[in-house]
Design brief:
By secondary structure, the chain is of the alpha+beta class. The chain contains 27 helices and nine strands. Helix content is about 60%, strand content about 5%. The strands form three sheets. A five-stranded mixed β-sheet has the order 3-2-1-4-5. Strand 2 and strand 3 form a beta hairpin.
């Protein structure tokens, strides 16, 4: 018996739109959430579906149920849904008689209006959003008129979806893909015509850039992986070295470092291709560190598969990690011919500094574990996290990308440090939270692996800071045990204590606060970079840490 696909309701469309934007353009959601904060929005659609919309931190949360006690209530009919995505009509033309029913206080209603206008105007330029809303329209074409723009224009009484048709004509689906790594992933969106107080003409629009982050990361990651394949020698010993070097990079990570490197190069006017080899070097350094980290942490899984030492033994794993670091050094040096002496020297300086920071951070964490110490303050974790992962995950990729574009002034390069230090800490805290409460299939490590390894996370530091005196001896007894002696029950006991003392909620709030501070510093410190495609990608990554589901 064939299973019937679920109806594409208005509530489902809203849910999928927010989910897609959280991956592809989190800066848009963060901006809309700023308007919705504190408002419970109840939505009703003409197809009988309902949804509740709330802002949580810088995220938007959709619940496909009727809102029991909304601050603002909105009922859409089909004509209102048609106009919701339309960029080209004034607000007064969007509110049709008997078409859109809105109830709520004046201030809350205007806030909701601003949020929805912002979402529709800025999301409309992303191809993924056009496809999603187009699929919704085409399930019932009789509501919108003929199926094609040409047929609608020829109809006696056309009913069109102006924004979708305009964008489809401007960027047809069968158009050849541009050669640039980042090209065709950003759009320029108009500013709001109405902010609840005054209106503006199109001629006064500010240039706002948004980027499809998922598409950009896929492209940058794929291009970087191709470069890694070119860098790997085609010679023996294959089975014991060079084939194993392909293992971790092939375990598709997010592509965060390559994207930051290539986007920063583009932001400064450089050619994206000039940053690809440096991005590949960063990925080799990163994966070499991961092989060694997994050995030090006695981890069993990495990105859903057995760790290198679990699968091939300690000796081969150590050697593979060493080999990837050596190959990364060679990749940095090989930029000499393409980028010249000055930029290559700058890359060497940045790479050495990044490695030094990472090694120092690893030493701090291993020292805490060896000496059975739990830091008393979050600041100690901030320093360790920035050194161990912040530099090579966030700060150094940006600085290296800038060097690839020809920027070697230390004062300019340091403009990235504070914003991405804060963003990097927030990102790491969220990763630590996901290890405790995230889905194993998404996180890619064994459940509660950080607790089994004794990682000094913000949650653990908070737990030992707030635990009662009679609880501490037992918590320390579990923590000081060797990784091989700990059981899943031990990890569950620590997790239960964290839940009792609110440690996970504390860490979530802290990560959000740091991310918001980092985004503010990004806008302030990098204001000197003109709005362009590369900067748009950097902005989306800065917002990405605030939109990931926890």
């Amino acid at each position: 018996m064939t299973e019937t696909a679920p109806a594409f309701t208005g509530a489902r469309l809203l849910d999928e739109t927010v989910a897609a934007l959280s991956d592809r353009a989190p800066a848009i959601l963060a901006a809309a959430a700023g308007h919705l904060r504190g408002i419970r929005l109840g939505l009703h659609f003409n197809d009988g579906s309902h949804a509740m919309l709330t802002a949580r931190h810088s995220r938007i949360v959709v619940d496909r149920h009727r809102c029991p006690d909304p601050d603002v209530e909105v009922a859409f009919d089909d004509r209102a849904m048609n106009l919701l995505f339309d960029l080209q009509r004034r607000p007064v033309d969007q509110v049709l008689p008997d078409s859109l029913d809105v109830r709520g206080s004046r201030d809350d209603t205007l806030a909701v209006w601003r949020a929805f206008t912002l979402l529709s105007q800025r999301a409309a330029g992303l191809r993924s959003m056009q496809e999603l809303w187009g699929a919704y329209r085409e399930q019932a074409p009789q509501l919108w008129g003929s199926a094609t723009p040409a047929a609608r224009e020829a109809a006696a009484d056309p009913v069109d979806w102006t924004a979708l048709d305009f964008l489809a004509r401007r960027s047809p689906e069968d158009a050849p893909a541009p050669p640039a790594l980042i090209g065709d992933t950003t759009v320029t969106a108009p500013r709001l015509l109405w902010d609840g107080r005054s209106s503006a003409d199109w001629s006064l629009e500010d240039t706002v850039r948004d980027a499809d982050l998922m598409e950009t990361m896929l492209r940058c990651r794929a291009r970087t992986n191709e470069e890694i394949e070119r860098l790997l020698p085609d010679r023996e010993p294959r089975a014991e070295l060079y084939d194993l070097m392909r293992s971790y990079p092939a375990r598709q990570g997010k592509g965060l470092r390559p994207t930051l490197t290539i986007a920063t190069c583009a932001a400064f006017g450089g050619r994206p291709d000039d940053a690809v080899r440096a991005a590949a070097a960063l990925e080799l350094f990163h994966n070499g560190f991961l092989v060694h980290d997994d050995i030090a942490d006695e981890s069993t899984h990495r990105r859903g598969l057995p760790t290198m030492h679990e699968e091939h033994g300690l000796g081969l794993a150590v050697n593979v990690g060493d080999g990837m670091n050596l190959l990364a050094v060679d990749a940095v040096l090989s930029n000499l011919e393409a980028l010249g002496l000055v930029r290559t020297l700058g890359l060497i300086h940045e790479a050495v500094h990044m490695c030094r920071e990472s090694i120092e951070g690893q030493a701090m964490e291993l020292g805490w574990i060896r000496h059975e110490v739990v830091p008393e303050t979050d600041n100690a974790y901030f320093v360790m996290s920035t050194k161990k992962t912040g530099w090579y995950t966030c700060i150094s990729p940006c600085r290296i990308g800038a060097v690839c574009a020809g920027v070697t002034d230390p004062a300019v390069l340091s403009r990235f440090d504070e914003a991405f230090r804060l963003i990097g800490i927030a990102f790491q805290i969220q990763d630590d939270i996901l290890n405790l409460v995230g889905e194993e299939a998404l996180y890619g490590k064994e459940p509660l692996g950080d607790l089994l390894e004794g990682k000094r996370t913000v949650m653990l530091i908070h737990l030992f800071r707030t635990a009662y005196a009679h609880e501490r001896p037992r918590l320390f007894d579990i923590l000081r045990q060797r990784r091989t002696d700990k059981t899943q029950q031990h990890a569950e006991e620590l997790l239960a204590a964290m839940r009792r003392h609110g440690s996970i909620e504390y860490a979530t709030e802290l990560a959000d606060r740091l991310a918001v501070e980092g985004i503010a510093r990004f806008e302030e410190d990098l204001r000197f970079i003109p709005e362009n495609e590369g900067k748009a990608v950097l902005r989306q990554i800065a917002h990405y840490v605030t939109s990931r589901p926890l």
